[in-house]
Amino acid sequence: MSPFKSFLKLEELGSRILPSSTTLPFLPGSTPARVRPAHYALEGLGSGTVATPPTNTAQQHKLTGTANTADLNRVSVSGSVSGVGSTPRGYATGTLTFTNARGSVTVQLTGLTEQTAHSPLPKYFRYTIVSSTGDYRHLQQHGTLRLDLQPATVAPSGLTTPGTFRIAI
Q1: What is the chain's Cα-based Rg?
Q2: What is the phi/psi pair of residue 152, to 5°?
Q3: Is 123 left (phi over 0), alpha (psi -120 to 50) or beta?
Q4: Model pLDDT, residue 156
Q5: What is the pLDDT of residue 161?
Q6: What per-residue confidence (pLDDT) applies to 141?
Q7: Rounded Cα distance, 37 and 153, in Å
Q8: What are the tens digits of pLDDT across the range 100-114?
Q9: Please, which residues have CB within 8 angstroms of residue 119's CB and are 6 or more apart in sequence?
Q10: What residues in the chain have per-residue pLDDT under 70?
Q11: pLDDT tens figures, 157-168
């Protein structure tokens, strides 16, 4: 079998019109479209205390505090977060509930990255609203939050310093 032999030729295709890099003028009476940034009802900051049971193999931490959010305003925050514990691979999980006189919003938390056994809690979590009541009953949202957790410490003298947390949504 003999190999094919082709001879390629290069031919000029003629002049081309290139697209302009200038902007097009708007028609009289028209306005440019505006892209609105995403609005997050839970966007805000919070802080509070952390209680960690002494025999805590799954790194479960109970959180209690307050936050100021975009739409809910001042709220009480309560919930818990847990690490993967002795599970070989997994995601940290938890729930947080934001409550005020107008209703409540509960979010499910899942760590952003998969972790190995006995890893410390991650700083970043995905959240999804799983239930809401009162004025917030139709609220649907998901996003990412940051949780900075400082567990309680016990000094050699036996003095316990309470744990704290800060949250940014």
Answers
A1: 27
A2: -60, 150
A3: alpha
A4: 84
A5: 80
A6: 92
A7: 41
A8: 999 999 999 999 999
A9: 83, 84
A10: 1-37, 54-58
A11: 877 788 999 999
HEC assignment per residue over the chain? CCCCCCCCCCCCCCCCCCCCCCCCCCCCCCCCCCCCCCCCCCCEEEEEEEECCCCCCCCCEEEEEEEEECCCEEEEEEEEEECCCCCCEECCEEEEEEEECCEEEEEEEEECCCEECCCCCCCEEEEEEEEECHHHCCCCCEEEEEEEEECCEECCCCCEECEEEEEEC
Amino acid letter, 152? A
Query: Which is it for strands 93-100 and 103-111: parallel, antiparallel or unpaired?
Result: antiparallel
Please report, as a single letter, which amino acid is at residue 73. Answer: N
Q: How far apart are CA 109 and CA 151, in angstroms?
A: 19
- Which of 152, 151, 169, 168 shows the shortest CA–CA distance to 160? 152
Q: pLDDT at position 17, please?
A: 61
Provide the pLDDT for residue 122.
94
Question: What global pTM score does this model have?
Answer: 0.74
